Known about the structure:
The complex is a heterodimer.
Chain A: E1 5-7, E2 10-13, E3 19-24, E4 31-37, E5 44-50, E6 53-57, E7 64-68, E8 74-78, E9 87-94, E10 103-104, E11 108-112
Parallel strand pairs in A: 2-11
Antiparallel strand pairs in A: 1-3, 3-8, 4-5, 4-9, 5-6, 7-8, 9-10, 9-11
Chain B: E1 4-5, E2 10-14, E3 19-21, E4 24-25, E5 33-39, E6 46-52, E7 60-61, E8 64-69, E9 74-79, E10 88-97, E11 103-108, E12 112-117
Parallel strand pairs in B: 2-12
Antiparallel strand pairs in B: 1-4, 3-9, 5-6, 5-10, 7-8, 8-9, 10-11, 10-12
Amino acid sequence: AAGVIQSPRHLIKEKRETATLKCYPIPRHDTVYWYQQGPGQDPQFLISFYEKMQSDKGSIPDRFSAQQFSDYHSELNMSSLELGDSALYFCASSLQGGLREQYFGPGTRLTVT
Amino acid sequence: AQKITQTQPGMFVQEKEAVTLDCTYDTSDQSYGLFWYKQPSSGEMIFLIYQGSYDEQNATEGRYSLNFQKARKSANLVISASQLGDSAMYFCAMREPISSGSARQLTFGSGTQLTVLP
């Protein structure tokens, strides 16, 4: 069965650079979530999209932005990167209206040097 | 206020024994979902089991079962017949509905690091 695809899987950037993370949800899933997991921490919600509109917003810095495109894939854009942005970034997808079945992608490990 | 509480930062269990990982939650919603995820050292987040707040029976998935006690707001994960490959971080998470029809994001607990001893 198709799963959530994230690219790239690993990314190394320097401070003040920009990064773009991509997420391709499971086919027919209309909701995408982005989470950030710092070292030794639990995943923290950043932002979500439902039917290409922003649905909910968590602790996403102003330096970050995201969008969902017409084909339902989503991109997380991160600018002016800081050392503290080094983390594992997960994308998850689900179907509208349900409380269950939120599937995670493998994550993108971002390292800021 | 903490929505999901996992009070065991680390747990050890002998191979082939059962282990219970604790999770308590806080919500004012009547409808919600509870999840357990496994995160091995490689980093991926693996879905294990789901319990809906209206489900009358405890969820089971193979060696995993969820001991759901709604009145106590607890959703403990029981792993039977532990295997070495079960060594990982385990997260309890909750998902609450929002009025627009879509569901909220997951809120995670701080996790329990389980180590299975040979």
